[in-house]
Amino acid sequence: MAPLLLPQAAYSQGAQLPPAVELHVPKPPTVAVGDGDAFLVYELHVTNLAAAPLALRRVEVLAPGTDARVLLALADSALGRALTRPGVAPPPALLERARIGGGLRGVTFLWVPVDGRTPPATLRHRLTVAVGDSGAPQTIDGPPVPVTTSAVVVGPPLRGGSWLTANGPAAESGHRRALVPVDGNASIAQRFGIDYLIVDDSGRTYVGDRLKNESYHAHGKDAIAVADGIVAATKDGIPENVPGGRAVPITLETVGGNHVIVDIGGGRHAFYAHLKPGSLRVRQGDRVRRGQVLGLVGNSGNSTEPHLHFHVSDGPSPLGAQGVPYLLDTFQVVGQCRRLIAECTRAATPETRRREMPLANMLLRFPER
């Protein structure tokens, strides 16, 4: 009598079996809207459960239905740019990232354009792979993945501007790819995170002594509640950094510096990080109203200069939760930077946006009240 489930060794003994690959989407996506476009932002984890290496040739994201319309297809260098290889050091070269050794994993970071009026209710994934050094291409069809269509609408976390959306939502931003394990679970709380800095008309974030926090335009500005809610957690007492340095060792306990987390309902939590020590106006359990001051922008924790890190996630942990998209009810785009605090241009006429999520390197103005 033979076991129904064959051991892994059978894959290296010529058995005619499907590729031993696990496909997993840790956080099913929610439709987000930014810069007039709708998109889905999520990760597909591809784990090779066999001993032989796996060559990932193509990844397709498919709409539901009999036609299985292709929403996104990645191959060659485009696939390499979308892939990371956790735990593999040194990081593989671009075209080597899609070769996944036995027992290893690749994470595919997907940014899928969709029709915001009729987004798909589910997605499927089709992979083209080759097993071993000379295996013929084979296809793998993954299970359906649900899509949520209702991103939360909130107010701005700050007032005035112009605020630069540094490290903001983008396919390859540092926040987007910050896969962090906390309590045995790897998640990306910062998937849609933004570092807000004030940039003046000269393209600078400070005037005067760059080693003094008070020289920075953002320092001491009000961080405000984006919605009514209940304060889920706070941390205070972490000293501010000298710009460019660190006042304390960076750990999971100190990375966010002085911070506030507000439960805004629906399983969503707004996170405000790097606040000025002693500036917090709220305590755990307090009820807050939209627009209420929570604390002042500072330079505590894992921060190089005064700024507000803001994101929304599905849990009350700074990093041990999954980031979810949100839409700001109104803001103005007053300019754009080609890259972080560089080559910034001002718009001749500010453009008002409604019910959108700011994307990377925008210059924004928020209502003063």
Automatic annotation (TrEMBL):
Pfam families: Peptidase_M23. InterPro entries: Cell_wall_metabolism_enzyme, Dup_hybrid_motif, M23ase_b-sheet_dom. Transmembrane segments: none annotated. One of its GO terms (molecular function) is metalloendopeptidase activity. It comes from the Bacteria. Signal peptide: none annotated. Residues 220-314 form the M23ase beta-sheet core domain. This is Peptidase M23.
